[in-house]
Predict the 3D structure of the following.
Amino acid sequence: MSLPSYIDVAIIGAGAAGLAAARTLEGANLSSIVLEARDRIGGRAHTMIVGDNIPFDLGCGWLHSADQNPFVAIAEQLGFAVDRAMPPWRQRSYKEIFPQADRDEFFAALDAFFTRTEAAAKAAQDSVASDYLEPGNRWNPMIDAISTYINGCELDQVSVQDFENYEDTEINWRLPRGYGALVAAYGAPCNVALNCNVTLIDHSGPRIRIETSRGTLTADKVIVCVPTDLVAAEAIRFSPALPDKVDAATNLPLGADDKVMLALDSDHDLPKDGNLRAPTMRTAMGTYHLRPFGRNCIEGFFGGRYARELENAGDGAMAAAAIDEIVSLLGNDFRGKLTPLGESHWSRDPFARGAYSHALPGHADKRAVLAAPVNGRIFFAGEATSPDFFTTAHGAQQSGVRAAREVVGGVVSA
């Protein structure tokens, strides 16, 4: 498909935000196209089928805040089953590895930390989240590990105000077919140009000129739905420059979060939907979901500096680290029972450069700065622009709806 020479609305990026903007604009009398640098849609929502027909979500995998998550209704409309079983994070820890007394002490320390950060945020302080760790508490390294899963980074890089702005209803559901598969199905009707890398948005004239790897087109309005690290690095340039946007994106960097999927030999006695996490007293650790949906596999999760180190070590390093840690916890017999099936490497992905955004200390206000339209012509969406559901696919989806409504003055229904 060749690019049109002119379009009413050009949408940059076919992740959840860009696809939501395109779907919302279906109700307006405007032509639109989504320009996507990859050879697929979905962005950081991507499901691979690995091993014995196992869907592996390399990016988002949980319907967080499911009671407010629009993708629940979208899943039902598109015929995707929604698994409403309780997540294993707290309720189903592998108690033989993590004794109950230690587990209770860890969660008490974690909850006390959350209480302190909440109090700091209510006092209108925007400081470094690590300041609210209890000095000398033996669980601090593991609390920091939890931050790497939540924020993609350690607490010394997190704005406490932003940390508390995030809304979590603590209802988390799953999609057996994969979250990435749902996002792709949601975006299937959209007019998308793949392998179309945007490099310049020139808004100096009466029409916006957009330079891409597949040619140039003009548009009346543009919705930018790309990860913050691309804006910060000016991988997409604006002419005239938009220094406030570059600054906002720079202060909303993407953290590192990655997953590994391991096939599990059928000769085992591991529980369905179990959680394996050891009291390691270190931040560089993985956490493991045993037999999700009862499948013979283990899904591992790594975050922060440790995830970046494993990515930089090359393909296979994440799987090797996961297997070593699982074997150290479950015994040497498991080394022969585990086979690597796939890894994510979001920091090495040139069109992502990370997992999801966090606000640096003192910069919680930058989400609103990034989200603000420019001269009624350039609009911004993506998880980083969400005031309360950032880091999530549903936050991205809602931001795309919001940006599309801004384009047409609020007259389009979702």
Notes: The longest strand covers residues 215-224. The two ends are 28 Å apart (CA to CA). The first helix runs from residue 16 to 25.
